[in-house]
Amino acid sequence: MNSILKKMGVVLIFMVAACVTVNIYFPAAAIQKAADEIVEDVRGKSEKQKEKEQQKPDKQSWLLKEMQNFRLGPCDAYAQQIDIEVSTPAIRNLRQNMKNRFPQLKMFFDKGSTGENNSGFLEVRNITNLNLKEKSDISRLVGEENADRKTLYEEIMKANKLGPESLPKIQKIFANSWRNNSESGWLIQNDSGIWQKK
């Protein structure tokens, strides 16, 4: 009898565990939202974002909202909900530096002299049409921007107590935001490593 109760207990524990999925996860969605906000703050809204906002309906019906939230079956249970911290003094300072630098960089994006790579950084692309001063400026600006971006990604990692293994994920998320916010005609590197005009 005792052995049957033990077996039933094990089966019951297994069934309960099967009903609930516990995810301890990298907060990709929260970091993506933070990345989009930072990039938008640095560059302003892209034309694509402005068009999306104009196309959004102002109100959804009550029924449609309820249907979107309705799910059958077990729901995921999260062990911890992480709020992403992006307003430390260091992060605010980096954002302001990038925002102040962007008008100077924009000229080089427009000329096709620099582009957004798939790792969240700028790369100098074609400088043949630049004069000596512009070549010096682009080298300095890209170096400063990349140093600030590297520090920004590290600060977000530290402020949110994420391990060093999360740094490449943060960079990739930011790469998507930088490329998505790029203007038409700017150079971007896709995930396969191929450079193209947006």
H/I helix tally: 7
Sketch the topology as an H/E string, one letter per element.
HEHHHEHEEHHEE
Beta-strand fraction estimate: 5-15%
Helix content: 55-70%
Largest sheet: 4 strands, mixed
Radius of gyration: 23 Å
3D structure, described in words:
- This protein is an alpha/beta fold and 198 residues long.
- The protein has a domain at 29-43 and 84-197.
- The protein is built from seven helices and six strands.
- The chain has helices at 2-19, 28-43, 47-55, 62-69, 89-111, 132-159, 167-180; strands at residues 21-23, 76-78, 114-116, 122-124, 187-189, 195-197.
- A hairpin with a 5-residue loop joins strand 5 (187-189) and strand 6 (195-197).
- The longest helix is centred in the C-terminal third of the chain and has 28 residues, at 132-159.
- The model is unreliable at 75-81 (pLDDT under 50).
Give the secondary structure arrangement, pairings included.
Elements: H1 2-19, E1 21-23, H2 28-43, H3 47-55, H4 62-69, E2 76-78, H5 89-111, E3 114-116, E4 122-124, H6 132-159, H7 167-180, E5 187-189, E6 195-197
Parallel strand pairs: 1-2, 3-5
Antiparallel strand pairs: 3-4, 5-6
Helix pairs in contact: 2-5, 2-7, 5-6, 6-7
Index terms:
single chain; 198 residues; two-stranded parallel ribbon; 59% helix
